[in-house]
Write a sequence for this structure.
């Protein structure tokens, strides 16, 4: 037990000496850390062509750590970027500071070390500039995808819902585009936002006007790069039968006028009762 207390005490001491014993910068996104001159931080994964933000508090202390300066840093920018990358520095006197970096569309996969500099404009607070280094890993593997169901049955002209879960494991909040490829006369695209570090489920309806068995790909692609993309194979069975019409009602949202609501409710009940008898 005493060793645990000692470990906590050492951790608190290190934190205090890092953040209060010298001029520092407090990073608050996409990860959190307090850094001093020339220290490094790993931000996370980002796809080629994608953009991400670095957020930091303007508050810091003077060089001796004896005085808290509410707005010590006036802007944050990247003085040097890999070829083809771009940057938008944080607006002057913004708090928290928020700068944007866009990866080159043709950036090679791998880890990159990027210098970032916090500036005390005119050295008004006697802080000068402070440079630290951020690491990012450029890869196409920046999200996890799950689609359900992968086999659906529907009556002709009756839409069914697919449930698409995107777990954004990267640091970009660029939109994703949902498409279905391989269905005749179907070219509906949905653009969705999946915030980094969060898994979110979206509904994507599909339908077909002709009976038959169709295989198509449900594809999710970053709006910034076709290299960041994943697909699921889906089987859709479309039949012009009353029973399949009932089944389609149970699997998806029927795009029909409100006045047909009671009729579809009865159809859904019939489908449910049929499924119980079939068991």
């Amino acid at each position: 037990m005493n060793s645990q207390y000692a470990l906590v005490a050492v951790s608190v001491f290190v934190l205090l000496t890092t953040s209060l014993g010298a001029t520092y910068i407090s990073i608050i996104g996409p990860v959190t850390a307090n850094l001093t001159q020339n220290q490094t931080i790993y931000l996370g994964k980002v796809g080629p062509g994608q953009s991400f933000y670095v957020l930091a508090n303007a508050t810091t202390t003077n060089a001796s750590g004896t005085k808290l300066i509410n707005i010590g840093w006036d802007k944050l920018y990247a003085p040097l970027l890999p070829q083809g990358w771009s940057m938008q520095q944080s607006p002057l006197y913004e708090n928290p500071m928020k700068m944007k970096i866009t990866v080159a569309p043709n950036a090679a996969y791998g880890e990159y070390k990027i210098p970032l500099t916090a500036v005390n404009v005119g050295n008004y607070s006697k802080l000068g500039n402070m440079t630290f280094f951020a690491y990012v890993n450029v890869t196409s593997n920046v999200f996890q995808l799950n689609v359900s169901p992968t086999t659906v049955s529907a009556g002709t002209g009756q839409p069914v819902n697919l449930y698409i879960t995107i777990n954004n494991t990267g640091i970009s909040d660029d939109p994703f585009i949902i498409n279905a490829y391989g269905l005749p006369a179907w070219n509906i695209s949905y653009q969705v936002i999946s915030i980094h570090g969060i898994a979110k489920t979206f509904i994507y309806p599909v339908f077909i006007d002709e009976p038959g068995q169709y295989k198509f790909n449900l594809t999710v692609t970053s709006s910034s790069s076709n290299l960041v993309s994943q697909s699921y194979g889906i089987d859709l069975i479309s039949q012009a039968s009353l029973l399949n019409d009932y089944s389609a009602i149970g699997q998806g949202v029927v795009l029909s006028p409100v006045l047909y609501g009671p009729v579809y409710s009865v159809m859904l009940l019939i489908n449910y009762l049929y499924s119980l008898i079939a068991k």
